[in-house]
Specification:
single chain; alpha/beta; Aspartate Aminotransferase, domain 1; globular
């Protein structure tokens, strides 16, 4: 059996093949996105988010093509003049650079992966409309603790907060009420094929969407929000992916259970790496380490022949490091779809290196 520990696209849920067969048999794939059948499917996903992922009843949910598309629609739909992007890695930086290309008033606050998050709080106090965080930085294995977001909310009482949770949605219990926009792609902790993004918004964000009334983009927030009220989309969406998402949400355990399970597995990985003779966690500060993407520091001369190739030969595909860390790190996805026997096999291989 082969397993992929790459952090996205990653291991599919075991039941995906059955879900695909169900989708074809259901007839939904030939239904209009204006039909009652599609609206019912939309509602099922929403209820799955509420029952399994603890999304508050007052939050709205929209479908997009990817988390990357969310960068555009959030920038255009929630700000008129400025925003602050807080990041430690490549994906957070890309979000900032893309947002700045749309709105020149966007500012950046970058920090070291081993920074003390508390030291950042005074630097967040700026007269901006929106503050953006990458909660789980896939590129370098950095995590902003959910508890810290609650502290940030207490500081930023007048601004909206947006959070990229691409590598943690459905893998961590998220403090939904501590931010106003949360978004992710589905090809990571949800164990789905790529091609769908999900964005949820608080009542405060919904009010901002309606007040700004941005209509320049066909798939912009204004149109998404308008159609959401009827459980429809502004464009013909990826109905197959939405169906898969609905089925996965029906079958996964409650998020608190998954969170505890992944925390335990992450502890196993980090303990192994801390005791290894030449591998180590890339993020030195333990509280900053991601629970779902384990970034591993490795001597460049051993990366390919010493780690990646032996793992591949054993049927275990590891994630290569993300630029500029591609020569000195590799990454391990700690996603729910990866079974215990695969994790045990990988841990045994790493211990034997």
């Amino acid at each position: 059996m082969k397993y992929t520990f790459a952090p996205g696209p990653s291991q599919l849920q075991l039941e995906t093949e059955w879900y695909l067969q169900e989708a074809v048999a259901s007839g939904l794939l030939s239904e209009s996105h204006r039909s009652p059948a599609f609206s019912q499917l939309y509602e099922e996903v929403l209820q799955g988010f509420r029952s399994k992922l603890e999304l508050p009843d007052s939050y709205s949910l929209y479908f997009l093509s990817s988390a990357t598309e969310c960068w555009e629609v959030l920038t255009a739909g929630l700000i008129s003049e400025n925003a602050l992007h807080v990041y430690s890695g490549a994906f957070g930086q890309r979000w900032y650079e893309y947002a700045r290309a749309i709105c020149p008033g966007v500012e950046a606050l970058s920090f070291d992966p081993d920074a003390d998050f508390d030291s950042l709080k005074p630097r967040l106090l700026r007269p901006v409309e929106l503050v953006c965080f990458t909660q789980n930085e896939t590129a370098n294995g950095t995590q902003i603790r959910p508890e810290w977001l609650a502290e940030v909310r207490a500081v930023l009482q007048d601004q909206l907060i947006a959070v990229d949770v691409t590598s943690s949605l459905a893998g961590q219990a998220l403090p939904w009420r501590e931010a106003d926009a949360w978004f992710a792609s589905v090809q990571k902790c949800l164990g789905m094929p790529a091609g769908l993004g999900v964005l949820v918004c608080s009542p405060q964000a919904q009010q901002r969407i309606e007040r700004l009334g941005h209509r320049a983009a066909y798939n912009g927030l204004q149109r998404l929000h308008s159609h959401w009220k009827d459980r429809q989309t502004s464009y013909t969406p990826n109905v197959l992916a939405i169906y898969l998402l609905s089925r996965i949400l029906q079958d996964i355990p409650p998020i608190r259970q998954t969170d505890a399970h992944l925390q335990e597995r992450a502890h196993t990985y980090y303990s192994l790496l801390e005791q290894h003779s030449w591998l180590s966690p890339f993020v030195a500060r333990a509280e900053n380490r991601s629970q779902t993407v384990i970034a591993v520091a490795c001597p460049p001369e051993r990366l390919l022949a010493g780690v990646l190739q032996p793992a591949q030969a054993a049927g275990l595909t590891l994630g290569r490091g993300y630029k500029p860390l591609d020569k000195t790190t590799f990454r391990i996805a700690n996603f729910p779809a990866l079974p215990a026997d695969a994790v045990m096999e990988l841990c045994g291989l790493l211990q034997g290196l």
